[in-house]
Amino acid sequence: LGVQVSPLKKLTASIGFDYFLDKPAYYGKTSGGEQINNETTIDENAYTFQASLEYKLLPILGVSAGFSTGNLGVNENYQSDLSYALKSKTIAGGVFVDLGEKITLNAGLVYVMYDDYSKSQTWTAEGPLSIIFPESPISYSDMYSKNTMIVAVGVDISL
Description:
Structural class: mainly beta
Radius of gyration: 23 Å
């Protein structure tokens, strides 16, 4: 769902909202042939919200800025050191130059900030390891944390 308006001749504003029906979706089967049960990894449907502004400084030059936030709705069972999904906030900025009627050069910078997530776990020594680690089970926490920066350059060609 989205709306775009131009309150001024040189200014365009837009907002958007995405809602994903992940909980009832069928994601296939495991390698053992068992159907994947979303209820074990998904607590709520995912969503994202976006807002952006674009301003034309000159007839051939413009700038843009945007913000986005979202939550993929996964629970602790989904999070692992191989795959994890975190709530995020994204800010972005860009510039564009019209190089003629049919060609526009774009450049942008995006920075994504993810919420930190901690998952408590335990490890129990088995077999010969139980001699080496008699204090088993051992409690520990996995911390999932990251930020991402993207730099992009592109060319639009209108045919």
